[in-house]
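Deliverable D5.2: sample structural annotation.
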Amino acid sequence: MNQSRPQGRITRFVISLFSIMLLTACAGENASNTDSSSAESSAAADNTQSEIIDNPNVVEDGYSTADEEVNTYYRRDADYPNAVDLPLQFITTKGGKKLSVRVTLPGDKDGNPLEGPFPVILTQSGYNTNLLSYMFLGSEGFAMMGLTDAYIVRRGYAQVAVDALGTGASEGGWELLGEDEQIGFADAVDWAHNQPWVNGKLGVAGVSYMAISSLFAAQRRPDSVDAVFALLPMGDAMRGTVGIGGLLNGVFMSTWMSITHLTSTQNIPAMLANPQHTAQLMAATQEHIDHVDIHHVPMIENALDGAPKYSYDGEFWQTRSPMANIDKVTAPTFIFGALNDLFQRGAPMLYERLSDNGVDSHLVVYSGTHLINFLKSHVASGEQVPAIDFLLLQWFDKHLKGMDTKTEKLPPVIQYVKNYPTESTPAEFQNDSYATAAKWPHPLLSPERWYLHGDGSLTQTKPTEPEPHFTMRNPEHPVGGARNANGLLVFDITLNDGTKCSSSYEQWTLGLVIPEPCYYDSNLSEQERVLFDSDTMEEDYYINGPIQADIWIDSTVTDAVVAVQVEEVFGDRSLPISNGQLLASKRAVDISRSRIINNDMIQPYHYFTEATSEPLVPGEVIKMQIEIFPTSAIIRKGNKLRIAISPSNQAQGIMNYPLQAAAEGGITTIHNSPEYPSSIVLPIVPTSALD
């Protein structure tokens, strides 16, 4: 493949996203017509060479392409010479608020919008589509952010981008994907279907927030949405993102809420470009500013004070969880996740449920963190995964235009595998880090239990006699809070357990940090860690799926946290693979909703409700069934499997103030004996299933 075009694209993405972070907002020229540079870049994209997706002949995992035609990277020439932005419009919701909507239509050679009708691609954003569209000036590849994308529009699609309720140029107060906002998502679908330039077909697409809004729109209007394309969506808000292990993910919430409010209040470019709407835009911006004191700061303070509404799973978090009503989605759905993403847990589980429901669905899992995967997805990944712009076109051409794009030949599941290929990998697979499967979790998954021992070893043999115990001291608590800083939301968290230098910190700051060596080598961590190592592996050891740690503990106080990380010891380095943690008082498990394979629970489902919470009795031994997020990785031949246990992972979750008081000064003992055999259950897949 000609690499100059993807490299150029990635450079533009980096520059553009750097511009977002700096928020050098200026109105510039109204991007109503695609300028010459955009047209030239789109024309250049038309000449991109086709590439082959290597769908190998794999029979063991239930997916085989031996007798199928090999797929090619899907592409086609543009149908129209231009993409044209219509004047800024507004949708009036059922609640009476006005939502900003940008419409981009195919245009003729003179830059005039065409009447159509066309199929619609709808994206609903929390990050100010007007501001970012002016920054990117119609550059290709930004459809999933709700920005003018000449590439997709010139191929015969109407593009509709809406600012979510309480964000950007829309009216109202933002309340984190709440009920009113979701009603607005449905109202936007209804509005789009009633436009004269729409042919009756509508797809929803987006990345991150925009992927989440796409799933909510498909749930609210299942008969009106014909296809879904969701890159890095959330599944279960409490268990997967904001309340991991029953704690509060302060690092993520502080990063996400600050960015969302910041972009929402930058409406001067929209005022300059649309002076006729200045008064309305000023009023909307003031609503967003006022909401800092009305909603954001009180919510954060209440959460830190331990308010049940935010501390436990219930209506508030379930309303904001796409997984809660994913069974309502009937449209063909393409899901993309990543191994160190904010939604590492949720993306594959969303796909699993859709697939089990018989929905035409596919899953791709990338490597890396949230931001980097939005960037990397626009460039082909090895031989398996085309650039996401081509996949988006292929998906919507099939489901909105009825074209034969052969999406059925795409593997159902494509996953990045950490540490793959290895020295043991056959030569024909040495150039690819991805593997395919017929479903998720992998059909050949088999649980395998490893036991922690008092000498720091990790074996598959259960302790037969009492062994030395390990103790951990609860760390100093984090500090921070939220405030109104001249109309902007500022939410600061200072970590005090050493996890600011960890892979979790990189993950939960969305990857918006300068890389540190300790993100990729846990031996450099300042965190308190109790280590358990296996012998060197005699063969490659393939882990693929969810993981559970069963750790027996007692504590000197009434609450404690146990954090567990899976690692590969490679020479003098220890490479983080995946992790999880659990608050002891919220340890209760709903067996009926937990994943059990071959009589082994491998993915616990915790209630996280006030009614099921129970403080520790000091000195009483209890079992902590800790969920470790799904991954796919190889512990390479000659290296060791390591399990690291810590008394916290504040980068992933912090205690609220009442919990901090309950855990103050506590010492946790890890038990490993015949009566209390601490262990970890790993999802093992034969290496013969790798392709």
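Annotation notes: The chain has two domains: 4-20+49-236+321-412, 446-689. Residues 355 and 461 are 37 Å apart (CA to CA).
The annotation will be released with the project's public dataset once the embargo ends.
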